[in-house]
Amino acid sequence: MARSIVCKVTPVASARRDISWCFQPIFVWLRILGIDLNPRNRKAISIYGFLMLLVGTWAQFENTSVIFWKLSLPQNDTHALNISTSNTNNWNIEVDFANHFCLMVFVSPTVFYVARNQWQLLWNLIVNFDSTYCQLDHNQLRKKLSIGVVTLLLEISSTLYALLVILPDFKRESSLRKFVTVFAFFAKILPISSLVWYCYVAWLSSLFYEAIQRDIDRTCEVNKEELQRWKCSLVLAGEVVNGINECFGLILLISVTHFVVDFIVHSFYLINNVSITSRFRMGIALADMLRKLTMFWFVTCIPTEILHKASSVANSLRKINCLGMDLRNQVSFLALDILQSLPRISALGYFDINFELLPKMIGTTLTYVIILYQFHWSEESDVNQST
After folding, report:
1. Which of 151, 201, 154 is nearest to 27 (CA)?
2. Any bridge partners for residue 276, and if so which?
3. Residue 146 to residues 13, 26, 230, 308: CA-CA distances in angstroms?
4. Residue 189 and residue 182: Cα distance in Å, rounded?
5. What pTM did the predictor assign?
6. Going along the chain, which residue ranges are E strands?
7. 3-class SS letters over 89-150
8. pLDDT score, position 203
C-alpha cells in the first residue's frame, strides 16, 4: 500500500529512476561498440554491430598473422620483430600475442550472441525483481556503478600508451596497416567492457540478496504471506544468478584464462628486463599489471559476495520468531534449502568464479615465472660456454 502511494505522488521520478536508468551508461557505451542491450532498440544498430564484429575479427587475424610472420624472420631481416636472441623470450612474446588474439576473437562474437539471444531473458528477470521487490536506492546505485567507467577509461589510456610505444615503427607502415593495427589494439576494449557489464549485473544480484536479508531482519514475527514473498524473491534472485551463468559463462572462462596467462607473461617481462628498462616504463608496466589485477579482483570478488549474502539470508531466517510449529518448520526448511543450493557463478561449469582464484593465480604465476627464468638462465649459460 505504501509503495502504491509513493507511485501516485511521484510518477515522473519513479518512471525515470528505475533499473534501466541505472544501467544507461553501460547501455550507451556498448551501443557505441556495436552491442545493443536496450530492449526497446533491438534492431536499431544490428547492421552497425555486425560490421564492427566483422571488421574487428578481420583486424585481429590480419594483425596477429603479420606479427607471427615478423617473429619467424631471421634476426638480421629488416622486418624482423625478434627483439631478443633468447628462445624463451620469443616464446613468451608469441604466447602473449596468441593470448590477446584468443581473448578478442572468441569473446567479441560471444558478446554479440549473448546480446542478441540471451540477454533479454536475464534483463526481464532483473526488471521483474526491481519492480516487484524493489528496495534499492537507484540514485546511489547509479553512482556506484559509475566505477566501471573508470575501468574503461584506464583501458583506453593503456591502449593509447601501447600505440605511442610503437609509434616510431608505426610511421613507416602503409595506411592499411595503420588502420588494421589501430583497430586491433582498440578491439580489446569490447572484451573488457563485457567484463564491466558482467560485474554490474553480478553486483546487482548480490544487492537483491541483501535487500531480502534486510526485509527479514526487519520482521519481528513472520506469517505465511511474508514467508511466501521471501520464497518467491529467493527463487527470482536465484534465476538471476542462473541467467548470469548462461550469459557470461563462456566469457568468464576465456577472460579468466586470459588474465592468468597475461599475468604470467608480463611478470616474466618485468623480471627479465628490470635491468634494461627505464624507471618510467617500469612504473607504467607495474601500474598496468596493478590495473589488471584489480579488474581480476572485481571479477572474482563479486561472486564471493553473492555467496556470503545468500548465506546471511539463511542465517537471518534462523533468527526470526515464528507463530506455530508448522511455520517454524517451513522457515527452517527454507534456510536449509538456501544453504544446500547456494548461488554460484561458474566459468561454463568448469570452475567456480570466486575469491579463491586470486591466490591460485598468484601461485601459478610464481611457478611458471620460475620455470621460464630457469629456461632463460640455461640458455644464457649455454651461450656463455660456447663463446
Report:
1. 201
2. none
3. 20, 9, 30, 24
4. 12
5. 0.86
6. 221-222, 321-322
7. HHHHHHHHHHHHHHHHHHHHHHHHHHHHHCHHHHHHHHHHHHHHCCCCCHHHHHHHHCHHHH
8. 93
